[in-house]
Every structure is written in structure tokens, then in C-alpha cells.
Amino acid sequence: MARIEFTTEVKRPVEEVFAYLTDPANLPEWQSGAIEGRMETQAPLAVGSRLVEVRKFLGRKLESTLEVTEYEPSRRFAFKVVSGPVPFHVEHTLEPANGGTRLSVVGEGESGGFFKLAEPLVIKAVERQTKSDFETLKDLLEARG
């Protein structure tokens, strides 16, 4: 099982960071591989809600359905893949820090099928892309300040 873990600080209020992070329509704006993000279930977002992500990764178009497993406004947001090519689980924890937000991200997953063959390369690529995506999120939100 692969694990990615990191923390970043965003110079914006926790409520703003949480609202942006949890809106699937924002995914293509800050995640380089995302083509589309949308709610599958009715709003508002809550534990049990389902989201759909469509992304390109290593030249392939992937669609996954995610289920929200934790939802504490302005504090925690977690989801797991319930349908898609790569099973993974991601947890986001937010807390006030230095006049902004400390955002901690932990992702765990297993490669399967095509991706199992190149697992070490896939893990490194996902780690690089994820960190870069969260830097983009940080830059976008701080530019709004």
C-alpha cells in the first residue's frame, strides 16, 4: 500500500480553504490531472455523499466515484474511492495556524491492473503531482486575499 503525507500552510481563513477544497467543481482549477469534478448525490455535502472525478493520469482518462467518509466543516474532510481503477482513501485536516490555515493531507491507496506493473513510478508521480496540486490550491487562494 502506498502512502502520501504532507502539510502546507495557506494564508487564508480555515472556512475559505475548506469551502474551496470541498467543492468538486473547483477540481480542474487546482488539480493538474482533473478534467471534471461533480456531485453525484444531492447537495449539501455530508458523510455518505458521492462525487465523481474525471482525470487524466499517465495518458489515460480515469473516472472514479468517491464517497465522503468524514465531513466536519472547517475541520476534516475525507473520502474513499468506491468505483474506479485505483482504490484510495484521502484525509484532509484543517486547523488555524499563523493567521491562516494548516492543511494536512494523508492519502493511501493500492495500484492495480495497468498501474501495478509500474507501481514505484506511479507512486512517485502521484506524490509529485499531489504536492504540486496543493501548492496550486495555496497559490490560488492566497492570490484572492
Describe the structure.
By secondary structure, this protein is an alpha+beta fold. The chain has helices spanning about 15-20, 25-30, 115, 120-145, and strands at about 1-10, 35-40, 50-55, 60-70, 75-85, 90-95, 100-110. The chain has a 7-stranded antiparallel sheet with strand order 1-7-6-5-4-3-2. Strand 4 and strand 5 form a beta hairpin. The model has no long low-confidence stretch (mean pLDDT about 90).
Which structural traits does this protein have?
145 residues; 7-stranded antiparallel beta sheet; 7 strands; 44% strand; globular
TL;DR?
The protein is of the alpha+beta class. Helices cover 28% and strands 44% of the residues.
Identify the overall geometry: globular
Rg for CA atoms: 15 Å
Decide which structural class fits the backbone.
Answer: alpha+beta
What is the beta-strand fraction?
Answer: 35-45%
Number of helices: 4
Q: Give the SSE string.
A: EHHEEEEEEHH
Low-confidence stretches: none
Percent of residues in helices: 25-40%
